[in-house]
Amino acid sequence: MTLLQAVLMGLLQGLTEFLPVSSSGHLAIFKNIFHINTETGMLFDILLHIGTLIAIFVAYYKDIWKMIVEGFGILIDLISNAGIFFGNLFSKNDAKMYRKVMKNAYRKFVMLIIVSTIPTGILGVLGKDLIEEAGAGLIVPGICLIITACLLMIADYCGSGKKTPKDTRYLDAFSVGVAQGVATLPGLSRSGTTITACLLCGFDKKFAVKYSFIMSIPAILGAAVLEMKDIGELTLKNNEVIHYAAGMAVAAIVGYICIKTMLVVVRGKKFKIFSIYCFAAGALAICGHFFLS
Fold it and tell me: Is the pTM of this model over 0.85?
């Protein structure tokens, strides 16, 4: 892999991971055109995903830090309540009061992300082989790109919701998690699908974007861990290390810019241009399936 290829793939990952087009589809096409080595390409994919994770952490570092702190707070309070339960069970004195666990919006946010991650993880594991087979040809990515185009048009026509973490139901979180799990199909945009699902559930637009990107953290980490076991022992040359690092850095920088761009897109109902692009790309992929096979 040359330095130019690594930078271009980093650029592609940063753009397509957060803008409402399919990153997996674009990267697969790029690798086929330039004959990127599959084995080392898998390692590079993981590094690219780490780059996009860095972008999310930089864009939402305040929220993520508070969620980490409150997440440990939830765990401490649950352990304390378990101790109080057993203490009350065997104590002859007056029963102690339990600690309130869900005491603020960030704790609710943590629990919502956990609920969303459950269906995503289940669908991701169960559908792993199906997803690999679907990405082997052009017909499924093509159809999924057209579905993405339709979802983006729906997002443009969604009214402005008012739900923030404290107003969001766990059923809403589960539904968005299912949407993210289904969006692992090649051609379905993860960000486009999940943001549309959030808006349909009545999320505030700014919160919908934040929720979509933060909920991707456990999904991306989980996918990276699953891919790690298939890498095996790889030997990288010094120049390859530089190339991989450059691609990861580009993915992080471009990803951060695209996160900020998505806030403008959602607020201004500007999904139409992405919808047109996805529809055109999907139509070309379907034509390619019939005329090139």
Answer: yes
